[in-house]
Amino acid sequence: MSYDKNNIFAKILRGDIPCKKVFENDYALAFWDINPQAPTHVLVIPKGAYVSFDDFSMHADAEQIAGFIKAAGHVARELGVTQDGFRLISNCGVNGGQEVPHFHLHILAGRRLGKMVQAA
Ligand code: AMP
Fold first, then answer.
1. Nearest residue CA, atom 17 of ligand 1?
2. Does the pLDDT of residue 118 top 90, yes or no?
3. What DSSP designation does 94 have?
4. Euclidean distance between the first and final Cα of the chain, in Å?
5. Ligand 1 nearest-atom number relative to CA 91
6. Digit-coded pLDDT (tens) for 50-95
7. How far is the CA of 31 from the centre of ligand 1 (A)?
8. Is the CB of 19 under 6 A from ligand 1?
9. What is the DSSP letter of 80?
10. What is the bridge-based pairing of β-strands 28-32 and 86-89?
11. Which residue lies with its CA nearest to atom 5 of ligand 1?
12. For ligand 1, is residue 35 a contact (CB within 6 Å)?
């Protein structure tokens, strides 16, 4: 799947549409999810144009990957969720339920999140 430069997160990265920013550096941007599924629901996206985790893990270089993961960890600590715990999710592709085709991590926290996957 090729990268769609007009996906919603690409527009946020370009500043074409606003977001509630939590953190930004050279590797990542983090912002509050518009439709939160938990008291804390923040998205962390890489600055580079990657469709999904699959694309990112295959094509990003080691510096980009390390910078992105470090940024996500920093955001979780800044949100104050590491003590009580949190969940990191990356939906990938159709079966993963990915809606926005720019790789992102969800940081979910603030309540007991229950089972990892809904029963079929
Ligand atoms: P996914 O299903 O993993 O692709 O998740 C996409 C997430 O992006 C969903 O949780 C949406 O609520 C969230 N989302 C969509 N548009 C926006 C936006 N403009 N600002 C913040 N979050 C958004």
1. 34
2. no
3. H
4. 27
5. 3
6. 999 999 999 999 999 999 999 999 999 999 999 999 999 999 999 9
7. 10
8. yes
9. T
10. unpaired
11. 99
12. yes
Q: How far apart are CA 1 and CA 52, in angstroms?
A: 9
Give the pLDDT confidence of 14-51 residue by residue, as tens digits: 999 999 999 999 999 999 999 999 999 999 999 999 99
Output the CA torsion sign for 27, 9, 59, 65: positive
Dihedral sign of CA atoms 28, 30, 35, 36 in order: positive
Three-state secondary structure string covering 17-79: CCCCEEEECCCEEEEECCCCCCCEEEEEEECCCCCCHHHHHHHCCHHHHHHHHHHHHHHHHHH
Measure 28 CA to ligand 1 centroid, in angstroms.
16
Cα separations in angstroms, 29 against 48, 56, 80, 113: 10, 15, 18, 24
Collapsed DSSP state (helix, strand, coil) of residue 106: strand
Tokens of 42: 């923040």
**Is 104 part of the annotated catalytic residue set?**
yes
